[in-house]
């Protein structure tokens, strides 16, 4: 997925997005103009797509293909590919449909298949979960979706069905198989997530990564500066010792300062941010796991309280914590227990900054694994509406009403007033398609209005009296504050035709 920055007020950028797989409609975004209504240049790192044809606008369920940082792991257009982190095993479905096919995994720079020895519905459930589906309906054997041509990477897969991704499942070892491609395994998945769920999950993950990256970058800069200062002091010591006027007390002070800098460098290294994740729950709850020394591990619940949970939730990008869980409330972990007796005050920037007994120092079992519940806000907002009047001509500037409301998630759009009201502050996407049929004496002249003031003058204009009808469309990204409202204004002396070919649609991309 490609990301971009939203420009300052008055600036605009042209962006181009690749074709991706979707359900029910073909996705494309050709030439989208971005605007911001605030002076602050905001980082906008959330993907989106809009669907349109000459008749209707709708927002279907969709899955986005995500570009991986793993070289060579890109797949063909139309494949269903897993959204994964750096330590996950990339997987894809081939030879089937949008939710079924032969299972292939990416390892050692090459895609390969899975042998069906021991392959069952529990293995299929984990694969479908990693691909973004809610469940698996069938586990297939005997190359049901055709034989693969690449290596057979895995055999004797033994998932329990509760794992988050394929990397957590036991298997016979990479390439250690005695199978042929006639035994290639496949799956059929079900339970497509909604657009809102998919966007919210990606948004939350991106927020956490952005926050952690900023902390790491700042600390790394401090460490580098101190190391440079230390090296300069070390280089100067021989010269200072040779100076006859240098007193022993001054030498001692320099040596103490060098020791202090050494200590501070070590202290900053110890405070490095370690990634965390929630497992076994949902988007905002789960067992807390931390990444340290090349592996994920759990946190013991000794002294675990709401202050510890607050730090975890803030590091993950949530505003606050609502609960601290103990006694493996979200199931027992399988890796090492990495932290015990955590003593956060609630103000620390990340979990690894909190006092604890030391990495992997504990007297706990996995039945004491700690968990959290974070404050989850879902300000879902999306609408799509159409003008049904056969002819709509105005003699004065007029806000266009839309009598047919097709979609209104959150009920933030009023068809009678033609007004969409922002439920939260954030970036919103809008698209308008205008149609004027058999109105040879009239033209389309549309302004985009925010709070009843012109935000984008002549946002859409079409005037061609030589034919029987005209159609035109435009789209935009706007930053709105809570309770700001957006509408479409038709200029005096201009007209539109309805028949539901004139449509206005929009949705929330990312809230502040």
Catalogue the unreliable spans: 1-73
Number of strands: 28
**Widest β-sheet, arrangement of strands:** 1-2-25-22-28-16-19
Q: Give the fraction of residues assigned to helices.
A: 10-25%
Classify the secondary structure makeup into a structural class: alpha+beta
Major sheet, described briefly? 7 strands, mixed
Tally of individual helices: 4
What shape does the CA trace take?
A: extended
The average pLDDT score comes to 77
Radius of gyration: 29 Å
What proportion of the residues form beta strands (DSSP E)? 25-35%
Distance between the termini: 21 Å
Write the layout of secondary structure elements.
Layout: E1 14-15, E2 32-34, E3 80-81, E4 91-97, E5 100-107, E6 110-114, H1 121-130, E7 135-140, E8 152-154, E9 186-190, H2 195-242, H3 248-270, E10 276-279, E11 285-292, E12 295-299, H4 306-315, E13 321-325, E14 337-339, E15 371-374, E16 382-387, E17 392-393, E18 398-399, E19 404-409, E20 413-414, E21 419-421, E22 426-437, E23 444-450, E24 453-462, E25 469-480, E26 485-490, E27 495-496, E28 502-511
Parallel strand pairs: 2-25, 6-8, 12-14
Antiparallel strand pairs: 1-2, 3-4, 4-5, 5-6, 5-9, 7-9, 10-11, 11-12, 11-15, 13-15, 16-19, 16-28, 17-27, 18-26, 20-21, 21-26, 22-25, 22-28, 23-24, 23-26
Helix pairs in contact: 2-3
């Amino acid at each position: 997925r490609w990301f971009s920055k939203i420009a300052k007020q008055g600036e605009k950028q042209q962006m181009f997005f690749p074709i991706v797989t979707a359900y029910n409609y073909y996705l494309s975004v050709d030439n989208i103009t971005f605007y911001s209504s605030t002076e602050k240049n905001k980082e906008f790192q959330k993907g989106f797509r809009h669907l349109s044809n000459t008749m209707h606008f709708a927002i279907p369920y969709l899955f986005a293909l995500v570009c991986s940082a793993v070289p060579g792991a890109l797949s063909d257009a139309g494949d269903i590919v897993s959204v994964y982190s750096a330590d996950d095993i990339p997987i894809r479905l081939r030879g089937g449909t949008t939710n079924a096919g032969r299972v292939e995994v990416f390892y050692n720079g090459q895609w390969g298949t899975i042998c069906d020895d021991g392959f069952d519905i529990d293995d299929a459930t984990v694969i479908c979960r990693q691909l973004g589906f809610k469940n698996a309906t069938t586990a297939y054997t005997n190359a049901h979706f055709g034989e693969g041509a690449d290596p057979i990477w895995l055999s004797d897969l033994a998932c329990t069905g509760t794992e988050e991704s394929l990397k957590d499942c036991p298997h016979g070892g990479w390439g250690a198989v005695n199978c042929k491609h006639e035994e290639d395994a496949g799956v059929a998945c079900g339970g497509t997530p909604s657009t809102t769920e998919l966007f919210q999950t990606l948004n939350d993950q991106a927020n956490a990564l952005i926050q952690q990256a900023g902390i790491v970058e700042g600390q790394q800069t401090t460490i580098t500066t101190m190391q440079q200062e230390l090296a300069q002091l070390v280089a100067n010591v021989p010269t200072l010792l040779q100076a006859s006027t240098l007193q022993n007390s001054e030498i001692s002070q320099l040596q103490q300062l060098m020791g202090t800098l050494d200590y501070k460098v070590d202290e900053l290294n110890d405070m490095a941010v370690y990634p965390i994740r929630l497992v076994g729950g949902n988007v905002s709850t789960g067992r807390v796991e931390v990444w340290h020394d090349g592996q994920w591990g759990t946190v013991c619940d000794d002294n675990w309280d709401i202050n510890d949970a607050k730090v975890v939730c803030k590091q993950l990008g949530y505003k606050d914590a609502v609960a601290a869980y103990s006694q493996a409330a979200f199931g027992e972990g399988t890796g090492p227990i990495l932290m015990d007796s955590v003593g956060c005050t609630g103000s620390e920037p990340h979990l690894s900054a909190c006092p604890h007994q030391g990495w992997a120092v504990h007297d706990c079992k996995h039945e004491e694994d700690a968990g959290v519940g974070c404050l989850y806000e879902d300000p879902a907002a999306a609408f799509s509406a159409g003008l049904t009047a056969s002819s709509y001509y105005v003699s004065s500037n007029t806000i266009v009403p839309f009598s047919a409301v097709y979609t209104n998630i959150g009920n933030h759009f009023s068809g009678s007033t033609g007004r969409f009201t922002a439920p939260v502050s954030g970036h919103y996407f809008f698209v308008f398609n205008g149609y004027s049929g058999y109105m040879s004496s009239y033209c389309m002249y549309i302004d985009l209005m925010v709070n009843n003031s012109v935000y984008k003058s002549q946002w859409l204009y079409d005037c061609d009296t030589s034919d029987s009808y005209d159609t035109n469309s435009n789209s935009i990204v706007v930053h709105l504050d809570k309770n700001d409202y957006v509408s479409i204004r038709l200029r005096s002396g201009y007209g539109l035709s309805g028949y539901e070919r004139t449509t206005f649609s929009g949705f929330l991309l990312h809230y502040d």
